[in-house]
Amino acid sequence: MQYKNSKKISFTASSVKKEFSSEQLTSYSGLSVTSDFINHCGIYRRLEHLFPTTRHNASRFSTAQILSSVLLASLCGVHRLKRIENFTFDALVSRLLKLPKNIDEDTIRRHLTGLGERGARSLHELLLDFTGLQVSRCGLKRVTLDCDSSTFTVYGNQQGAEVGYNSHKKGAKSYHPILCFVTEMKLLVNSWLRPGSSYTSNGVCEFVKETLAALPPKGGEGFFQGRQRLFQWWIV
Known about the structure:
Blueprint: E1 8-9, H1 31-40, H2 43-50, E2 53-54, H3 63-75, H4 81-87, H5 91-96, H6 105-136, E3 142-149, E4 152-153, E5 162-163, E6 173-175, E7 178-182, E8 187-192, H7 204-213, E9 219-225, E10 228-234
Antiparallel strand pairs: 1-2, 3-7, 3-10, 4-6, 5-6, 7-8, 9-10
């Protein structure tokens, strides 16, 4: 018999003391400093606030822990779910995220699937809030927004991947995301994931409107440079 439990699974990232010894060696030692920076920026705390997890009898991980493990794995070049499972075996990763054990592939998939479109939108809004805050703190009087697209080849039948123009591997399925960077800061402000069959400028007007709405409310102007769309945006 299972009993309902409304208690939340709390998650607070920890800081690991760095020392040179022969014990608990890890190939991800630089991740400790990166995790401290992420924690300082409040990203872990925002994830915990956005995705509170109710404890059940079988629940051992919060959604914030799952997302944080995916974030750290991505920064280390680990992208596949099976490899993320192996990534959480690492002693440093386990201590940074306070994992009671490694996170298996099925658990990661179940949590990510459970987020749905609403969860994806919440994560996207978190990105816009964070990058908008960084732009407002940069101290520059104006910034240049560089909008461009890129091709990301996939191998399999990933949802949303379609065959389109792909100069790297013709005939392969891909995504064709549209990206916006602040040139002076080398900061990714906004991004949309699109099917590989999307034309370069598909949805660019709505994309730019969403991007500008996340920036400090001033004004700007736009112009073309080759195939790229650039904007000068005044922020002070």
